[in-house]
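lol forgot to send this yesterday, sorry. struct tokens for the thing we talked abt
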């Protein structure tokens, strides 16, 4: 399976070279529709301000631990800026840049198991949410892809113990060593999210999404940058392809963008669950997968 995924990623990474050989004369006189949002990544005050409140239920995991973590609840606040560009009367392109703070804790959800480890985590960071969507009179439907950089601080509410029916003493010691890499220290990580926002106006939007986060036990800067460059090369290839879909069939564009980008993000997340800076030989990270629901207020 991983060989198939690797072949697909190689194809995506070679796609920009193929695109460069295509005659682009017909696009030279186009307006600014095709400019890339990445060029304005740091332009935070580009657009209208928004506030978002979210709640979620999730699960944390470390693939090398014998112990299991309890499910967690999430409460989150986002503050940022929204920009919308109209392709036509129906299809729009949107871009959001935001900062956020979150609290993840076993107490914030009701499904508690005595054999699982309760935890608490505080995190903050910033990110970008973007995509193509639909505007039908006052109805907005915005399927999105989101990427974030996060700093997280884990606090354990209980620890593995060397008594039955929990794992043997060797497993307990190994689990404690892994936990010690994270607990009471801020650790850097990344997160991807896919979801949809829906509203009867652009002022209030209801959203639902799935977030997958990677928390690094340590930040290996050069390997992280190398992994990030490979991941972004694939995103750029998808951007070029999606732009052509939008030009050829605008109605299909938002769905194609949503499926391709989120599938690509999820594949990378799965690869990084074993090696935090895939494809480089690096440690196994702590991961979080969360289903989120929220409301966004645009001003």
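and heres what i got for the seq, position by position
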């Amino acid at each position: 399976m991983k060989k198939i995924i690797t072949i697909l990623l190689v194809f995506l990474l070679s796609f920009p070279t193929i695109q460069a050989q295509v005659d682009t004369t017909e696009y030279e006189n186009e307006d600014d529709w095709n400019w890339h949002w990445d060029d304005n990544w740091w332009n935070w005050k580009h657009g209208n301000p928004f506030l978002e409140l979210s709640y979620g239920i999730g699960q944390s995991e470390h693939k090398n631990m014998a112990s299991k973590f309890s499910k967690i609840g999430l409460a989150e606040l986002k503050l940022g800026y929204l920009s919308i560009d109209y392709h036509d009367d129906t299809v729009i392109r949107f871009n959001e840049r935001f900062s956020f703070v979150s609290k993840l804790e076993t107490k914030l959800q009701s499904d508690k198991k005595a054999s699982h480890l309760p935890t608490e985590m505080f995190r903050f960071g910033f990110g970008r949410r973007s995509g193509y969507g639909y505007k039908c009179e006052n109805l907005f439907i915005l399927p999105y892809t989101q990427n974030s950089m996060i700093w997280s601080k884990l606090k354990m509410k209980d620890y593995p113990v060397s008594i039955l029916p929990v794992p043997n003493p060797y497993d307990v010691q190994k689990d404690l060593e892994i936990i010690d890499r994270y607990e009471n220290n801020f650790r850097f990580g990344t997160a991807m999210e896919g979801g949809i926002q829906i509203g009867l106006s652009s002022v209030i939007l209801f959203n639902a999404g799935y977030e997958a986060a990677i928390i690094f036990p340590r930040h290996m800067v050069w390997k992280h940058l190398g992994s990030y460059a490979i991941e972004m090369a694939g995103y750029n290839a998808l951007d070029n392809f999606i732009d052509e879909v939008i030009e050829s069939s605008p109605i299909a564009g938002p769905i194609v963008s949503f499926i391709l980008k989120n599938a690509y993000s999820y594949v990378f997340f799965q690869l990084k669950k074993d090696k935090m800076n895939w494809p480089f030989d690096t440690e196994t990270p702590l991961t979080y997968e969360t289903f989120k629901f929220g409301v966004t207020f645009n001003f």
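The longest helix spans residues 221-248. anyway ping me if u want another try
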